[in-house]
């Protein structure tokens, strides 16, 4: 279980200073429902724009 999620998406509701994710839990899926082969092909579904 990840306890220390670093994230640079600073326009997310859950983003906290120091590039920390403050969400209780996050859901990450493969981009566009395809089989991911690289990190670029994954996507945080918990993201909420502010
Ligand atoms: S919910 Fe996802 S996008 Fe938002 S800060 Fe956490 S890891 Fe980043």
Give a short synopsis of this structure:
With 50 residues, the protein is mainly beta.
Give a topology summary.
Blueprint: E1 15-16, E2 20-21, E3 28-30, E4 42-44
Antiparallel strand pairs: 1-2, 3-4
Residues 5, 7, 9, 12, 14-15, 21, 23, 26, 44, 46-47 line the site of iron/sulfur cluster (SF4).
Main attributes of the structure:
20% strand, 50 residues, two-stranded antiparallel ribbon, binds iron/sulfur cluster, mainly beta, single chain, 4 strands, globular
Structural class per helix/strand content?
mainly beta
Net shape: globular
- Got a strand count? 4
Helix content: under 10%
Any low-confidence stretches, pLDDT <50, length ≥5?
Answer: none
The arrangement of helices and strands along the chain is EEEE
How is the biggest beta sheet arranged?
A: 2 strands, antiparallel
Note the total helix count.
0
| Small molecules in complex | iron/sulfur cluster
Could you tell me how far the N terminus lies from the C terminus, measured between alpha carbons in angstroms?
Answer: 27 Å
Percentage of residues in strands: 15-25%
Q: Strand order across the biggest sheet?
A: 1-2
Radius of gyration: 11 Å
Indicate the mean pLDDT: 95
Commentary on this structure:
This protein is mostly beta strands and 50 residues long. It is built from no helices and 4 strands. The chain has strands at 15-16, 20-21, 28-30, 42-44. Strand 1 (15-16) and strand 2 form a beta hairpin. The chain is globular. 2% of the residues are buried. Iron/sulfur cluster is lined by residues 5, 7, 9, 12, 14-15, 21, 23, 26, 44, 46-47.
């Amino acid at each position: 279980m990840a306890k220390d999620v670093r994230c640079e998406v600073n326009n997310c509701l859950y983003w906290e200073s120091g590039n920390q994710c403050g969400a209780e839990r996050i859901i990450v899926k493969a981009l566009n429902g395809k089989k991911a082969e690289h990190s670029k092909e994954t996507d945080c579904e918990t993201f909420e724009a502010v």
